[in-house]
Amino acid sequence: MYLAVDIGGTKLAAGVVDDDGRVVVRDRVATPQRDVWPALERLILRVMAAAPAPIIAVGAGCGGPMDTAKKTVSPLHIPTWENFELQAALVEATSLPVYVDNDAKALILGETWCGAARGETNIVGVVVGTGVGGGIISNGRLLSGRLGNAGHIGHIVVEPEGRPCACGGIGCLEAYACGPAIEAETGRPPQRAPIAIIERTGLLLGRALASLAAVVDFNLAIVGGSVALGFGEPFFAAAQAEVNSRARLSFTEHLEIRRAELGELSPLVGAAALARRGVLGVA
Q1: How far, in Å, CA of 205 to CA of 173, rounded?
Q2: What is the DSSP secondary-structure string of 162-206?
Q3: Do the Cβ atoms of 127 and 88 come closer than 8 Å?
Q4: Does some domain include residue 281?
Q5: Would residue 27 show up in a list of annotated catalytic residues for this protein?
Q6: What is the domain range of residue 6?
């Protein structure tokens, strides 16, 4: 059994996942404005107490940036966590081995383990939710990068003279596609966004994926997250159409976009996949 932790800007989730990727216990709370760690620790202890069998390791998916050398996280949508020592806090709370990585990297590991990317070896995973994150598997290896931040597709520039982004840049995909940006623009929560916004969000994701495919050479993109999955078919159709229009090199022209098969469970299964990878040394 693995303890899976998913840390987002709007919700904190924890669960117990078995060796076949089944979520057997889960719980969640809204992410508080302050005192995020105490709320998360209470949630984790509650879930651990309900575990039906011993837990061997902890996996945690969290928004970035992060610094693997210093073992800190600085999620843009949890401003009180700048350089927060998440791994150390989880070890102290659970007394278990802990593996922390970006939430989108966790998603693609989970989808490769028991979701829409089974058997695939060249994939990008994207989470479109409170933020926009990405993870890349190339020739079967999860790319990490210098400080653990490889795959941050949310900060590919899709509108060069566009909006300011929370990262400090201009025109990033995240400045248009994440839930808070959509709500700020429309005055509505993302689930009530008009069709024009849904299709534009898909188009901009497709634009970013086409650019990334030319650099990384992958043939499949798995997309999850509350915004993407909530938008549904119009979003995915717009993203695929934009990829088809822009990814015209011989090695990019068959790039396929699929929905995350694990749906709302994908963050927890993905976090468990981080722990499984750490314990077993598997992809």
Answers
A1: 7
A2: --B-TTS-BSBTHHHHSHHHHHHHHSS-GGG--HHHHHHHHHHHH
A3: no
A4: no
A5: no
A6: 2-102
Pairing of the two strands 57-62 and 256-259: unpaired
Same domain for 46 and 82?
Answer: yes
pLDDT in tens, 167-215: 999 999 999 999 999 999 999 999 999 999 999 999 999 999 999 999 9
Does 209 lie in the same domain as 140? yes
With respect to residue 272, please indicate whether it lies within any of the assigned structural domains.
no
Task: Please tell me the total count of domains within the chain.
Answer: 2
pLDDT at 283: 59
Same structural domain for residues 183 and 154?
Answer: yes
Which string of DSSP letters, residue by residue, matches 21-71? S-EEEEEEEEPPSS-HHHHHHHHHHHHHHT-SS---EEEEEE-S-EETTTT
86 token code pair: 């998440």
Q: Indicate if the pLDDT at residue 264 is higher than 70.
A: yes
- Would residue 270 count as lying in a domain? no
**Candidate list 6, 18, 101, 103, residue with the active-site label:** 103
